[in-house]
Design a protein that fits this description.
14% strand, alpha+beta
């Protein structure tokens, strides 16, 4: 499962080396930081998200035509706190992209319980994608979109 994340992220990194973002790529998150995030959340993060954050601590981007930025651990937890409204937000949904890392309005999340992804926004219109999309698939699509740009 996480090997797919590594392959897709390496494709993204290759593109970013040729077309550097405004901010340099940040080093991956430490195991300690990831463990702290899991303790704060009260549940284990999906293996794919842990793998991605070990490769890149974020924020990075924009990575998509929609302008989404990959969030690092701290910013993802900040967005989680912003969105975590009982009855509206799934408690195991972890944002990993946002339109703006400092003041996010929308982005993509992963469900720690299932590994599936969905979209979110601050108007409480958040949902899992119906096609069973995963973080690996998302990153592969981003890599394909970036490659198609140049």
């Amino acid at each position: 499962m996480s090997n797919g994340v590594i392959v897709a992220w390496e494709r993204i990194e290759s593109w970013l080396r040729l077309h550097p973002p405004a901010a340099p790529l940040s080093p991956g998150a430490s195991d300690e930081l990831i463990a702290e995030a899991e303790a704060e959340l009260g549940f284990r993060l999906p293996a794919d998200l842990r793998t991605l954050w070990r490769r890149c601590g974020g924020p990075v981007g924009p990575l998509t035509p929609e302008g989404e930025v990959l969030l690092g651990v701290r910013r993802a937890l900040d967005a989680y706190d912003l969105l975590n409204h009982p009855g509206v937000w799934g408690t195991t949904w972890i944002p990993f992209t946002a339109d703006e890392p400092d003041d996010p309005f929308s982005g993509t999340f992963i469900d720690a319980a299932t590994g599936l992804i969905g979209s979110w926004n601050r108007q409480d219109v958040s949902h899992l994608y119906e096609d069973g999309s995963t973080l690996t698939g998302y990153l592969a699509e981003v890599a394909d979109e970036l490659r198609a740009l140049h």
